[in-house]
Amino acid sequence: MGRAGARRSRTQKKRPFWVELPLLIVMALVLALLIKTFLVQAFSIPSDSMQNTLQQGDRVLVDKLTPWFGSEPERGEVIVFHDPADWLAGMPVDEPNTVQKVLSFIGVMPSAEEKDLIKRVIGVGGDTVECAGDGPVKVNGTALDEPYVFPGNTPCSNDEDGGRFKVTVPDGKVWVMGDHRQASADSRYHQDDPNEGMVPVDEVVGRAVVVAWPIDRWATLPVPETFKNVPGKS
């Protein structure tokens, strides 16, 4: 083949950008979907129950990879979990528009149709968690130092509806509480459900690791030091 033939062959192999664009878009969508399914997903904070750690409307990134390797939630972690027993019954759900549906499908935005919650793990399987009066919260007899509790709140809620309790967490479940203690309908107030207020580990989507949006609120979500002093398994 002469030089002219070689030039023609190379020219024929080049495709216009507009021909390759659909393929690139499909590849990007597949990659985003894989990331959403197995690695990280965005989640929008729906209420004030985790103030001041998280504000309503914050976007957090949730680590979905670790549970795939058999890791279970640990004390002190902020976790996202599926509604375990109609905790969100009666709560209004906004109908997403087309753009929101597309963005939630690829994981850039959380799905408005999924009924998920976000709370802090206080007790894991085998732990005894208790609250008396205004607190402090005790895990396996050790009082927690909780600087993340909403200013003006008491660590325990001194009421007859579930604020005073002593429970032992079964294996395969966790006990969760919101940081805004007096504005969180958490494990304390669902002790009459089939799980006795516990969240099955199988319902946990993953651990919230970073506040990603808005930018001026960017922060990591580490496990507080106080949980390192709790005896027993974690």
UniProtKB/TrEMBL annotation:
Keyword annotations: Hydrolase, Protease
Record's signal peptide: none
Any one GO molecular-function label of the UniProt entry: signal peptidase activity
UniProt cross-references to Gene3D superfamilies, sorted A to Z: Umud Fragment, subunit A
Catalysed reaction equations from the record: Cleavage of hydrophobic, N-terminal signal or leader sequences from secreted and periplasmic proteins
Keyword Protease: yes
Pfam families associated with the record: Peptidase_S26
Assigned EC number: 3.4.21.89
Top-level EC class as recorded in UniProt: hydrolase
Membrane-protein topology: Single-pass type II membrane protein
Peptidase S26 domain segment(s): 20-213
Location in the cell: Cell membrane; Membrane
Primary subcellular site in the record, as a coarse category: membrane
InterPro entries: LexA/Signal_pep-like_sf (IPR036286), Pept_S26A_signal_pept_1 (IPR000223), Pept_S26A_signal_pept_1_CS (IPR019758), Peptidase_S26 (IPR019533)
NCBIfam families attached to this UniProt entry: sigpep_I_bact
Family: Belongs to the peptidase S26 family.
Protein name according to UniProt: Signal peptidase I
GN (gene name): lepB
